[in-house]
């Protein structure tokens, strides 16, 4: 009978907790129905004893949680009632994993005690303010959930004249540092809508100069060149516009879904079968550029389509839009600070409209150079003739190179290095690198042959490096240098000595060891399909200044290439969407959240960042 009573309590309170129409309902309702009792159910204020205070420029809320009860991490929030008060993102402690039977999913909760901090960057001259503290919890004893709670707390504010953000409470000191992605999220909350959209467009223009966008150039140009010789400025611009709009809409929709769900949807497309299929498409496109065959629809299908006005153009644009969609998901899944800032805003506010506009503006900024390149192709592409064959062959080679670059995400390094060598050597031979120049050759012919000879030499160097154990296309002879007497120490010194961890349990175990030794910790999220991760590996982590700054720090790395359940749980543990993300922890095991790094950071800037984060 008691078991049935608890079941009824759980069902009724689950209904009350999830209903917005009856916010006044509480435990008293169960008492009136004869389903409650002082021996069974604590009053909400007894189960979760709330206390608040101002600590400098931080509003701090603390809970003492009764035994057998817990609070949900994702239900906690602190919102200032005054419009003039500017705040940084909420700072939460890391909760415990729990599969909750009420909501039937994995959640993070707090037992015994909890603390939430809201840093205040500006009071706008306000002396007193009201903060709304929101929370919700459940009882493990009776199996019920309490309705969501909101407490209005009036506090006297200190004079805050600096826009500096407060340091998280577990570090014990205020600092003027806030991570770039958090600043961007805060700007979205408080900034002018049109200025924000314009700022995101500018950020997209800057991202257009990164490896996230570069691979899309040969794809777009390959599409344009493959349409035929007599392309006009108007036609090439339309092709470019459709490609960029499809890419931008994909980024926007996927970004909104990521922000609302917390799932890294782009990572789903980074599996060997999908990558291999896309590589096969690039190979097919490149071979058509070389003139091996024509990629076109069957004649019977074409004859039917010609009966509809502009059917061929419509079909072409549809294909271009599909390529733009696939390119956004597969070719350039880059995680950057502006992108994460917009996702944080969407996740915290649920405002998919402004967040989506920001993401669309960011994507259009990234695509602006593609529009310019595509439109200019109508003027610079040669007309029918031998020159057109050369142009198509060049883009055919670029598409093959793009296929090898994508294959690096799923194939062994030795295989892709051999493919790079083969591509360079064969291309060099076609360029006449081993042929003698006829007498009276033009300067362009000599330049063409000289370029071919450079490609030939580098291709041979890649083969030599591969045979000697090298696996890095940019440092192919490193294996020879190591075996030549310098020993393995130099090879190890060129890369940071990361310790690989897997999942939340692996992280907790490694952190316990580091804390026992009193050492600081850096955690790096890495994946083979992450472009910015490769940049950090090659350009940042190999820098001597960076290695010196991290000399006394435990270096952990989570390889999330598989994107399996353990990887996703680790994402949720830290509230991130995927790599690259780098976090720092002090010698007591507390994260220095304001120093999180998202996206690529150059070596000189990163070494300074490390010094500030760990000292």
Structure description:
This protein is an alpha+beta fold. 51% of the residues lie in helices and 15% in strands. The strands form four sheets. Strands 1, 2, 5, 6 and 9 form a five-stranded antiparallel sheet that branches. Strand 1 (48-55) and strand 2 (58-65) form a beta hairpin. Helix 7 packs antiparallel against helix 12 and helix 13 runs antiparallel to helix 14. It is elongated. The N and C termini lie far apart (60 Å).
Major sheet, described briefly? 5 strands, antiparallel
Q: Note the total helix count.
A: 22
Helix content: 40-55%
Q: Which structural category do the helix and sheet elements fall into?
A: alpha+beta
How would you concisely characterize the structure shown here?
The protein is an alpha+beta fold. It has helices at 2-18, 27-32, 44-47, 180-190, 193-207, 216-226, 233-261, 272-289, 299-305, 311-331, 337-349, 352-380, 386-407, 413-430, 443-467, 478-486, 488-493, 503-517, 531-540, 544-549, 565-574, 603-614; strands at 48-55, 58-65, 69-72, 77-80, 86-87, 91-92, 96-100, 105-110, 113-122, 128-135, 137-139, 149-156, 499-501, 520-526, 553-559, 581-585, 597-598.
Question: What is the fold's blueprint, element by element?
Answer:
Layout: H1 2-18, H2 27-32, H3 44-47, E1 48-55, E2 58-65, E3 69-72, E4 77-80, E5 86-87, E6 91-92, E7 96-100, E8 105-110, E9 113-122, E10 128-135, E11 137-139, E12 149-156, H4 180-190, H5 193-207, H6 216-226, H7 233-261, H8 272-289, H9 299-305, H10 311-331, H11 337-349, H12 352-380, H13 386-407, H14 413-430, H15 443-467, H16 478-486, H17 488-493, E13 499-501, H18 503-517, E14 520-526, H19 531-540, H20 544-549, E15 553-559, H21 565-574, E16 581-585, E17 597-598, H22 603-614
Parallel strand pairs: 13-15, 14-15
Antiparallel strand pairs: 1-2, 2-9, 3-8, 3-11, 4-10, 5-9, 6-9, 7-8, 10-12, 14-16, 16-17
């Amino acid at each position: 009978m008691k078991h049935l009573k608890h079941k009824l309590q759980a069902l009724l309170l689950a209904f009350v907790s999830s209903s917005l129409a009856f916010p006044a309902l509480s435990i008293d309702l169960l008492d009136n129905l004869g389903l409650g009792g002082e021996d069974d159910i604590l009053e909400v204020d007894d189960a979760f004893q709330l206390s608040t205070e101002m600590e400098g420029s931080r509003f701090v809320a603390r809970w003492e949680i009764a035994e057998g009860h817990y609070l949900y991490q994702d239900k906690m929030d602190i919102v200032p009632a005054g419009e003039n008060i500017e705040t940084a993102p909420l700072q939460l402690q890391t909760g415990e994993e729990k599969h909750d039977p009420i909501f039937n999913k994995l959640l993070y909760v707090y037992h015994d005690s909890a603390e939430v901090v809201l840093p205040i960057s500006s009071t706008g001259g306000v002396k007193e303010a009201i903060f709304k503290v929101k929370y919700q919890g459940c009882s493990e004893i009776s199996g019920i959930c309490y309705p969501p709670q909101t407490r209005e707390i009036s506090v006297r504010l200190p004079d805050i004249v600096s826009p500096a953000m407060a340091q998280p409470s577990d570090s014990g000191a205020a600092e003027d540092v806030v991570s770039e992605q958090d600043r961007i999220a805060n700007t979205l909350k408080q900034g002018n809508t049109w200025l924000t959209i314009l700022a995101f467009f500018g950020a997209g223009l800057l991202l257009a100069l990164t490896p996230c966008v570069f691979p899309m150039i040969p794809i777009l140009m390959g599409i344009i060149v493959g349409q035929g010789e007599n392309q006009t400025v108007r036609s090439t611009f339309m092709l470019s516009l459709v490609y960029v709009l499809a890419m931008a809409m994909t980024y926007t929709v996927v970004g909104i879904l990521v922000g609302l769900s917390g799932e890294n949807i782009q990572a789903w497309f980074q599996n060997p079968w999908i990558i291999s299929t896309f590589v096969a498409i690039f190979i097919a496109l490149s071979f058509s550029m070389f003139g091996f065959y024509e990629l076109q629809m069957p004649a019977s299908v074409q004859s039917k389509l010609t009966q509809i006005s502009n059917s061929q153009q419509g079909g072409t644009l549809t294909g271009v839009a599909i390529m733009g969609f696939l390119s956004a998901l597969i070719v350039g899944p880059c995680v950057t600070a502006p992108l994460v800032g917009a996702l944080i805003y969407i996740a915290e506010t649920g405002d998919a409209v402004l967040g989506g506009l920001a993401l669309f503006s960011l994507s259009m900024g990234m695509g602006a150079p593609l529009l310019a390149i595509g439109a200019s192709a109508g003027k610079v592409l040669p007309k029918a003739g031998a020159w057109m064959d050369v142009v198509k062959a060049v883009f055919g080679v670029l598409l093959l190179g793009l296929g090898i670059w994508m294959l690096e995400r799923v194939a062994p390094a030795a295989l892709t290095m051999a493919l790079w060598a083969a591509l360079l050597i064969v291309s060099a031979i076609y360029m006449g690198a081993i042929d003698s120049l006829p007498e009276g050759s033009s300067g362009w012919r000599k330049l063409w042959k000289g370029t071919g000879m450079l490609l030939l030499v580098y291709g041979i160097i890649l083969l030599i490096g591969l045979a000697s154990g090298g696996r890095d296309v940019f440092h192919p002879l490193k294996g020879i240098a190591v075996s030549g007497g310098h020993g393995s120490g130099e090879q190890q010194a060129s890369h940071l000595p990361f310790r690989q961890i897997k999942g939340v349990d692996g992280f907790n175990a490694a952190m316990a060891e580091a804390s026992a030794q009193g050492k600081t910790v850096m955690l790096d999220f890495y994946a083979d399909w992450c472009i910015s991760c490769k940049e950090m590996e090659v350009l940042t982590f190999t820098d001597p200044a960076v290695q010196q700054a991290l000399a006394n720090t435990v270096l952990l790395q989570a390889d999330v290439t598989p994107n399996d359940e353990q990887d996703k749980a680790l994402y949720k543990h830290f509230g991130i969407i995927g790599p690259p993300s780098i976090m720092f922890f002090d010698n007591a095991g507390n994260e220095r959240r304001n120093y999180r790094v998202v996206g690529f950071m150059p070596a000189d800037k990163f070494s300074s960042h490390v010094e500030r984060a760990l000292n």
